[in-house]
What does this fold into?
Amino acid sequence: MNTEHSPRVLAPLPPGVAPTVWERARGSRIWTADGRELIDLTSGVLIANLGHSHPRVVDAIADQAGRLVATFVAHHPWRVRYATKLLAATNGAFEGVALASTGAEAVDAAVRVARAATRRRTVLSFVGGYHGKTTETVLLGGLPALRREAQRWAADSVLHMPFPREDPAASTAESAAEVERIVDLATELARATAPDDVAAVLVEPYLGAGGGVVPPSGFLDACRQLADRLGARLILDEVQSGFGRTGPLFAFQTMARPPDLLVLAKGIANGLPMAAVVGRASDLAATGTGTLWGSYSGNPLACAAAEATLEALQEEVDPARTATKGGELVATIRSWGTPGVREVRGVGYSIGIELHGVSGPERAAAVVAAAADAGAVLLPPAGVNGSVLRVAPPLTASEEELERGLTALRVALDGTTLSG
It folds into this structure.
């Protein structure tokens, strides 16, 4: 193996990464260093929602790179222009934008804003949630292995609640009752253990790293009511769901009332490091002047890529197709009746395939490797114990590319049946 690809010179990648070396990619296709063509069912970890090297984004990057790349906090027109267009895309639900570089940084910023605005500290979040890998965001999340590592370094001021799962067999009334039960329990826990101290309710529209778990309909609206009941800010972490992944441009657009703070990253610039916190102007000012800026925040290059990405998503991607086709992909995978598959679930182009049995995590890792051999790249296994396969193709993938990707996935599933 070439030194440039050797794990000895880099911190280890997450376990279960497909054993491929990417050399170039275009749209939903990847070409590896050994000359193979694979179908990307990861969107580069839910980043390239438009597919890789989208022409409009490439042109915007190339043009901007020849003009101005970095300014730190100096004024430049691309930052204001992008923020204005982003706010318009949220249908006027918010007033201001704080730009950042990563999702974890943006979640950190949103929590700081909520704490400063409410003068409280405690955050209520959900088991299985994932909000980044910084110490603070690991504590805010609900993945036990990461929390154990971070708890050695920081005080814990987070309350964790169970994240409800959508049950296809449950009636609407039963689903609503389950959501109400969790919200009531969260209210009681918060009032008993952190009276008048909950600054924020932090939630994802679906659990990504937590296993592709989709909540019952109405859960986000219930979280809105919970935050109101506690006098807290509702922070919606749309790092993975934003920019068309679930169908609409943002998942919050299905809610009766929007969250107080919206966290965006990943698909925001189709590959360039970029993130944003969107909220009320008064809240964003609560931490103090200049405190939400960093060295790379809203740099001209990232803003140009983000603007091109937003325009392309609005003009070239049909939200209805994403929602409908995602449902069809789930139905297709379910129809295979693959032994050892406990559940197939999803929303839009984010699908989870949960394997059961004691060999579930081992088999999931084997499926990722086998899928790469068969012609498709999958995300590393997810879920609390690593037994969930995740499928997240670019929103622009063609019918033929999706069919090729599913064929490779089925070959991998059929070829890796393990006992247990």
User: Anything to note?
Assistant: Residues 3-53+318-414 form a domain with the Aspartate Aminotransferase, domain 1 fold (CATH 3.90.1150.10). The mean pLDDT is 93.
